[in-house]
């Protein structure tokens, strides 16, 4: 593997690690706000309760995995799947597929609308896809 491939891979891994760790830690720090925001979404309470913990734990675990070379590949695949799911949900909200449009209150993205959130998610999904694609092309790290 060339030096530039390694730098690209590490940049992708560390950028996504920062995003996932920052959002996970922010949710823990403002747990009550995160809980309220999750219960304001379109999910039933039982699903919201599960997602509250599942998303926080998954963000923190995947963020940590991206920091360490032995777990980076699994981490990038996990981030890609999570970003696909997050982006799908945001797109469904943005295109008003649900009966109501929940506010995006709570968390670090509370000041942006669903359209901006969708653009950000598509960008991060693209970054994760580049990592998965480069790995699929046989570029080892």
Automatic annotation (TrEMBL):
Its main location: membrane. It is a multi-pass membrane protein. It comes from the Bacteria. It is found in: Membrane. GO terms for biological process: methylamine metabolic process. Coiled coil: none annotated. Pfam families: MauE. Keywords: Membrane, Transmembrane, Transmembrane helix. The keyword Manganese does not apply. GO terms for cellular component: membrane. The chain crosses the membrane at residues 6-25, 46-68, 74-95, 107-132. This is DoxX protein. Residues 9-133 form the Methylamine utilisation protein MauE domain.
